[in-house]
């Protein structure tokens, strides 16, 4: 496609994602379905351009106050994911001069909001948590996430999967913390790889793998993944159970559970029972009261720990949404807790970096549930022989290691939180 046509397409896609009325990945997929003639490289350029604009929206809007042409075209030019000489074939002389002027602005001279590119309401809670590391965190959140795989140890050892990928010219290194993880160089197409189609590997961020590990589900147990969604963590938990026992995958979205089915088929797991529920107090949940050895609540959350892959969330989420989420999170955790049998383990997790969705929910639950003993997550991970377990957890002087707290700039994962309890016997 000629650079001019590709820039026009990017401008239209940028216009659509900036409406912020749907998740960016949905908008991009719909755009590609409408433009079937686009090749893989053109698709990559368009998607990366739209994501670049979402990532650096404040900076690009600032730079786009100068220049000419529509606002979306200026933003698409600034985010255009291709070599400058290719892009310049699409530009008028005044546009080229404006772009050169933008490129010449020294980053150090930019106001902080054009460097961190975060909404103002998010800055204070992040600064309060990471202090001097704020700029490093903000920079990490502006980078695309690496591609992590989880090796399905029911089918393959990690080293064998790594060797198989190498034969397909895909370089993969072991993830630093998860014993099942491989981190891939670049973004190769995996769907047609034998290792993928036969279920030996699945795409999953290392942080998600650690949440499944923390649940520590064993052979023959009764386990519930309460907010299973498309089942990323369900699959990892089923593998730790060595395909024995019974693993319920609950979710209120039948549509998301449907996406679990092909993944289950590939994985070779037959111990998973997907159940679409109407709400967290559904009769099908109540019937299992006190029967579960382990329950994971991977709660619906703002997703603000996943800004590397979902940069639109920082513009689509608002403080009032977080307040609404808190009520749902506590209600879901409270209902899910009823399933846990005496001596059983409960894990609450989110992919949010906001204390309001994390420590605050754990504290509110703890205050109402004296029958649940908080477990120290660092100790649980140490017992699982995880390297640097304490470094993955909170460091409060009063309760060191109490919660899992993963950060992109420290751990190279998405931002995750987890708290764990044991029901008193
Ligand atoms: C963070 S996502 C889960 C991601 C999934 N565990 C994974 O690893 O891919 C949260 C899920 O909670 C589900 N959910 C929302 N409200 C719920 C409720 N009341 N009961 C159970 N699941 C709920 C959503 O449909 C969504 O799939």
From TrEMBL:
It comes from the Bacteria. S-adenosyl-L-methionine binds at residues 251, 298. The keyword ATP-binding does not apply. Pfam families: Methyltr_RsmB-F (PF01189), RsmF-B_ferredox (PF22458). One of its GO terms (biological process) is RNA methylation. CDD domains: AdoMet_MTases. Residues 137-424 form the SAM-dependent MTase RsmB/NOP-type domain. The active site is at 351 (nucleophile). Keywords: Methyltransferase, RNA-binding, S-adenosyl-L-methionine, Transferase. One of its GO terms (molecular function) is RNA binding. SUPFAM superfamilies: S-adenosyl-L-methionine-dependent methyltransferases. InterPro entries: MeTrfase_RsmB-F_NOP2_cat (IPR049560), MeTrfase_RsmB-F_NOP2_dom (IPR001678), RCMT (IPR023267), RsmB-like_ferredoxin (IPR054728), SAM-dependent_MTases_sf (IPR029063). The keyword Amino-acid biosynthesis does not apply. PANTHER family: NOP2 YEAST -RELATED NOL1/NOP2/FMU SUN DOMAIN-CONTAINING (PTHR22807), RIBOSOMAL RNA SMALL SUBUNIT METHYLTRANSFERASE B-RELATED (PTHR22807:SF53). Belongs to the class I-like SAM-binding methyltransferase superfamily. RsmB/NOP family. This is RsmB/NOP family class I SAM-dependent RNA methyltransferase.
């Amino acid at each position: 496609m000629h650079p001019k046509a590709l820039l026009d397409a990017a401008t239209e896609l940028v216009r659509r994602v900036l409406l912020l009325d749907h998740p960016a990945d949905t908008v991009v997929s719909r755009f590609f379905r409408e433009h079937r003639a686009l090749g893989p490289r053109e698709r990559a350029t368009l998607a990366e351009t739209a994501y670049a604009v979402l990532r650096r929206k404040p900076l690009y809007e600032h730079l786009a106050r100068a220049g000419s042409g529509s606002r979306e075209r200026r933003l698409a030019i600034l985010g255009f994911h291709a070599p400058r000489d290719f892009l310049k074939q699409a530009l008028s002389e005044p546009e080229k001069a404006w772009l050169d002027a933008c490129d010449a602005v020294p980053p150090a001279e930019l106001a902080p909001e054009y460097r961190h590119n975060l909404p103002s309401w998010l800055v204070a809670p992040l600064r309060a948590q990471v202090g001097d590391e704020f700029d490093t965190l903000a920079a990490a959140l502006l980078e695309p996430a690496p591609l992590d795989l989880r090796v399905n140890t029911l089918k393959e050892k990690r080293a064998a999967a790594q060797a198989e990928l190498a034969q397909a010219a895909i370089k993969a290194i072991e993830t630093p913390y998860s014993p099942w993880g491989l981190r891939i160089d670049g973004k190769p197409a995996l769907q047609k790889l034998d290792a993928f189609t036969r279920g030996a590997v699945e795409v999953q961020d290392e942080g998600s793998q650690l949440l499944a590990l923390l649940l520590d589900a064993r052979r023959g147990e009764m386990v519930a993944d309460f907010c299973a969604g498309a089942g990323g963590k369900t699959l990892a938990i089923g593998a730790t159970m060595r395909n024995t026992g019974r693993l319920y995958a609950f979710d209120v979205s039948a549509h998301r559970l449907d996406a679990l089915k092909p993944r289950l088929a590939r994985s070779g797991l037959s111990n998973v029972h997907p159940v679409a529920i109407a709400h967290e107090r559904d009769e099908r949940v109540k019937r299992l009261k006190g029967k579960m050895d382990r329950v994971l609540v991977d709660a619906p959350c703002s997703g603000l720990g996943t800004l590397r892959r979902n940069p639109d969330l920082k513009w689509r989420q608002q403080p009032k949404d977080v307040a609404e989420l808190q009520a749902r999170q506590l209600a879901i955790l409270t209902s899910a807790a009823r399933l846990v049998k005496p001596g059983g383990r409960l894990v609450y997790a989110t992919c949010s970096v906001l204390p309001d969705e994390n420590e605050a929910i754990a504290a509110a639950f703890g205050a109402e549930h004296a029958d649940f003993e908080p477990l120290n997550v660092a100790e649980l991970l140490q017992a699982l022989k995880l390297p640097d377990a304490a470094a993955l957890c909170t460091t409060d002087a009063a309760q060191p290691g109490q919660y899992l707290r993963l950060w992109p700039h420290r751990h190279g994962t998405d931002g995750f939180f987890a708290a764990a309890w044991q029901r008193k016997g």
